[in-house]
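Worked example 2:
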Amino acid sequence: MLKLDHLEISVDNYRASRDFYVQQLGFTVEFELPERRIAAVQDEYDFTLFLAEHMTAAKPRSCVLTLQVADVDATYRELSARGLSFTQPPSRLFWGYGAELRDPNDYLLRLWDAESMRSSGDR
């Protein structure tokens, strides 16, 4: 069996990215390597996202992070109340029912929940 354990993404500022994922999305800091400009943040299911600030020439970014939540509509209301802006509010999108926003590095984040996804054809 294979299980995805962690993912590293390039970021402009690892501290700002760490703060976004921790303060806004509820991840926890697993560890940091300030001398390497890397923070590892973890969701409640032990998936680790490495936020690596690279000092090399910018590379095109093409990563989409899909985050499962308990309730898309409730999570949208909660995050909006914290001041986060969404590119797509909860709605039926080409991939199903969910919401979309961007992190500080312009990575697309998709929020979905199992119940809404099952009934997305009814919306």
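DSSP finds three helices and eight strands in the chain. The two ends are 35 Å apart (CA to CA).
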